[in-house]
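=== RUN LOG ===
request id: a7f3
mode: sequence -> structure
chains: 1
length: 161
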Amino acid sequence: MSNWITIYTDGAALGNPGPGGFGVVMYYGSHRKEISEGYRLTTNNRMELLAVIVALQNIKDKSIPIKVFTDSKYVCDSIEKKWLEVWVRKGFKNVKNPDLWKLFLETRKGFQLELNWVKGHAGIKENERCDELATTAAKNAPTKIDQFFENLKNSGSALDF
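=== RESULT ===
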């Protein structure tokens, strides 16, 4: 049994914005779990971030360290380069996806989290599987509503892209 939970994530949006989805593959010891969900209108970055959030929401034991592998520079750089800390200090003013970043901050509390960037479409088995899950979720006529994004889109806000 490994000493940590391993998570692979990916997000997709067809048209960006357009129908979107996320995919997650999680491992702990001999246990494996896949999660995916689609939204009728969203962006790729929102789905990339939501994949990490949903993965964390599915972990019951916060004492187990977690290694997340994502091909999203947006997610990795925002956290690893401390942009997120700056956004918090500035009250998320003029930041894209503040609803999801706030949810991420709340969700990650108590976890020992390590983020790792992996090159997308480079033959990494679990990353490819997450891409397949995310793309399939986006293509299967999703009806779930990304309420925050759709509200921004309908208001004509420039922060939605």
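=== NOTES ===
The chain has six helices and five strands.
The mean pLDDT is 94.
=== END ===
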